[in-house]
Fold this sequence. Notes:
The chain is α+β, with helices and mostly antiparallel strands and 176 residues long. The chain has helices spanning 8-18, 47-56, 71-77, 81-85, 140-154; strands at residues 2-6, 25-30, 37-40, 43-46, 60-65, 89-93, 101-104, 108-112, 133-137.
Amino acid sequence: MHKLLLNREIYTEVIESLVPQTRRFLWIVTADIKDMYVDINGTFAPFLQLLSDLVERGVAVRLVHAKEPGPRFREDFDKYPHLFSSELFERVLCPRVHTKAIIIDGAIAFLGSANLTGAGLGAKSPDKRNFEAGMLFDDREQINHLMTWVDSLYLGEFCATCKRREHCPDPIIDSI
Length: 176
């Protein structure tokens, strides 16, 4: 399956439908990260609540982002102790990240333009959201290739040769 998703379709198909069904692991790669609200059982709540619920269910969540999260995201983050106390929640920051990807259980992936923000992936109304596009796919070979690359990024394999190190506020690999 290769399916084009536009605008709010990204939210309804990926964030609202697929992400809550994650069983083993969820990897999210984004350039920008801000507070984002989603519908959880008829109530709009921070996306962090959904991530916390997944972690409580035993799902490993990996978040790779380029910027420090916005202040409201940081405030909300402190309300979900499972995210900062569980080994199942991992986060790294790399200022060179511009990719936007979501990988669910190694079985389905989304690649597109939308950041982890309310206007990008969140439940905003059509008149307030960004214009976004992306592809949802389940091709195992492509997903494995993407996962290998994300894993390399997450593990800091690019840090040794990075020429932007002076701009990195939180190096993945400290001593190079």
